[in-house]
Amino acid sequence: MTNMFGFATRTALAVGISVLAALPAAAASGGGGGGSGGGSSGSGGMPANQVCRKGLVWSKALERCVKAQSGSLSDKELTQQGRALALAGYYDNALAVLDAVGNKKDATVLTYIGYSHRKMGDVDVGIGYYKQALELEPDNLNTREYLGEGYATAGRIEEAKAELATLAKLCGNTSCEQYQDLSNFLTTGHE
Questions:
Q1: Which residues form the domain of 145?
Q2: Which end of the chain is less enclosed by CB atoms within 10 A, N or C?
Q3: Model confidence, pTM
Q4: What is the dihedral of CA 98, 102, 107, 111, to 10 degrees?
Q5: Is there a single domain that holds both residue 135 and residue 173?
Q6: What Pfam families does the entry give (predicted)?
Q7: CB count in 10 Å sphere of residue 125
């Protein structure tokens, strides 16, 4: 009977710890905010109620958080999760995940590294990453929007307006989401 009791106790303890460990992640997923995301909201298969600790990423195959490192998931999955974390307001986590991406010469990776830095207050660092991303993809609408927001945050309003004009040209009109978001940012001073 002692062996059975010991097994049952260990099992109950493991289940209890699992539930307790999941609570902060579920609670944390409700906050953050993040402004416009532009495009799809793919999260690389990460459940909406799951935010892994810094340095970990969600493995859809294993259905648990695993260490964020090159090869732990594909670059595409790491990029999607890094983007989702950045847009949800988990900037440190996003940077850790995006750092694990093998291909650092990817415009989306550079954009969301820049986005995370800008949102943490490192506006000039963010602008630098946006410029690198635009060297790779000059027509990236999200990057143009975020660069304009970065310029506006830094008080460089003329440069922000130039990005708005570029967005109007790239979109073909002024009704695309990125143009509207940057225009609103310039009008209100926030997202």
A1: 123-191
A2: N
A3: 0.71
A4: 10
A5: yes
A6: TPR_19 (PF14559)
A7: 16
